[in-house]
Amino acid sequence: xxxxxxxxxxxxxxxxxxxxxxxxxxxxxxxxHGDPTRPGWWDTLIGPGKPVDTDRFFVVCANLLxxxxxxxxxxxxxxxxxxxxxxxxxxxAMADFVTVHRALLDHLGIDRLVAAIGxxxxxxxxxxxxxxxxxxxxxxxxxxxxxxxxxxxxxFSAVARSAIMRDRDFQGGRYPGTGRxxxxxxAVARMMAHITYVSEEALAAKFDRRLQDAExxxxxxxxxxxxxxxxxxxxxxxxDRFDALxxxxxxxxxxxxxxxxxxxxxxxxxxxxxxxxxxSFDSDWRFGTAHTRAMVSHLERARVPTTLRxxxxxxxxxxxxxxxxxxxxxxxxxxxxxxxxxxxxR
Amino acid sequence: MRPDLDLVASWIAPGSRVLDLxxxxxxxxxxxxxxxxxxxxxxxxxxxxxLQAVRSGVPVWAVDVDSELxxxxxxxxxxxxxxxxxxxxxxxxxxxxxxARIAPLSILAVPNFAYWRHRAVLxxxxxxxxxxxxxxxxYRTPNIHxxxxxxxxxxxxATGLVVQxxxxxxxxxxxxxxxxxxxxxxxxxVYLVQRAQVTCA
Lengths: 346, 201
What we know:
The complex is a heterodimer of chains A (346) and B (201). With 346 residues, chain A is α/β, with parallel strands linked by helices. Helices cover 38% and strands 14% of the residues of chain A. The two termini of chain A are 31 Å apart. Chain B has 201 residues and is an alpha/beta fold. Chain B has one domain (3-112, 145-195): Rossmann fold, CATH 3.40.50.150.
């Protein structure tokens, strides 16, 4: 298991905040490893004086079980056979991620968190955590997430997985070590998913119909528009940092996630006392405000103290990774209070 | 806390679940939570007020009282508070219908446009009144549906909300329970209203 920490753990171990990463994230959430141009994926939010203030909180972020950035996943070697797990790796559920996160906390000697925080798939882990062990979370921050994917959400993931599994080089999931991997499928999956992470407005603002390195259209099937070149690049760089098997396993967890199918789930959260902050972005068409409201309605009916806010932002789902002032101010206010409630010195 | 909120708080039974529409910085809910073991939710869309409410630990929904009260379920609260907010809504009648649906009891604090100073400004100067109670010029006031106390009481009755208590407020928002001729002398009033019992024949 790979993890990073930021800030200093208080002598009473009472100032910890756990960061749950999204589908293609990793443990490197904040700061940099020597190269300031390569900050962590949530460096806008986490750091000294930032909304997740590392001058005050001890922040932990772990790579997900099933991932490919240091924690055991389907491309790891199965010690029982000496071979790569491939598709023999067990299917994962959201609760498995939480079990591993909690085992890490045991390892670090931390009983209770000031908060768990995450966006997208990260927010879903936070919700699952509150359902499984609410007494461990004073607060939960869930950003741009969902408690139940819609058919459209599942459809997008289905196309992405199909692109990977139909790639000839996928080889039934036995590709690690063969020198060939389903790069075309993984890149196409990423290109398509990326479109769903940004709004139409954001793409228009960034690219409009501009041509790539040309004054006149070339009228052909090669990359001609700037947006095509951008997506092509996104697909390509993704191959350097992500694994196709991990993509299958992690994305599938979201499809089956439905914590409130258990009618007692919300009442357990209420009894455990976890307080929620649930945020959405108005231009997000992946897990937009309707998703957040559906989740909050379960919590509110069970009398879980819940703050709900839709943030205006033109950037779509990816807004949760960006420096959107109203979003950051809300997280800062909420975590500031959570820290006070846990007796963490300012 | 504003003096009229003290009065509101005194009408709320300990342990109640309270929905405070237009909760501002959350002072009322923070007080009720700390002193009267209440739980609840505030609704506020003003950026700095809602951040203050979040900072003081009050659960807040940044939703629009005008269009989004359907998000709250029938009988999901014991009391709804609507303090100095009704006059700022687009359709006060529809807001009151939501109140009657969401909780059996509601508490309303409203300004009184028939307050004598307002009448005097209108009658003698022929101008729209401005006062500590209504501090905005007519063209940028958030108070778009001003009413008198009998106007409010007519609408409450038409909505099936029965007035249990009414306390006139002076211009400082202080309770004046003994005040006579309230529609002339009160700058506002606080009402405790109860949903009319539906009886089946």
